[in-house]
Amino acid sequence: MSDSSGRPSNFAIGNILLAVAAVMLFFFVQLWELIGVVALLLWMALAAAGVYFIMKDKDINPGGPPN
Fold first, then answer.
1. Contacts (Cβ under 8 Å, ≥6 apart) of 14
2. Which of 1, 25, 46, 67 shows the greatest Cβ crowding within 10 Å of its Cβ?
3. What are the backbone dihedrals phi and psi of residue 8, each rounded to the nearest 5 degrees, phi first?
4. Residue in 50, 41, 2 with CA at minimum distance from that of residue 22
């Protein structure tokens, strides 16, 4: 989960952000009553950031020949 510098990888950060966005959906009615449209904007930002971090960790080198 972490590299040699002790920081979690971008893939792990993206998955954590997506997990938080998923948990938010369980409490979305209460969040909507408390903060209104900000809840929706926060959820969208978490989901977008999670996908961004997952895609950022993608290997850009082409794969080798199949085995």
1. 49, 50, 51, 52, 53, 54, 55, 56, 57
2. 46
3. -70, 150
4. 50
Per-residue pLDDT tens over the stretch 7-61: 788 889 999 999 999 999 999 999 999 999 999 999 999 999 999 999 887 766 6
Long-range pairs, 53-62, Cβ under 8 A, ≥24:
53/10, 53/11, 53/13, 53/14, 53/17, 54/10, 54/11, 54/14, 54/15, 54/18, 55/14, 56/10, 56/14, 57/9, 57/10, 57/11, 57/14
Full-model pTM: 0.75
**Running DSSP on this structure, what letter comes out for residue 21?**
H
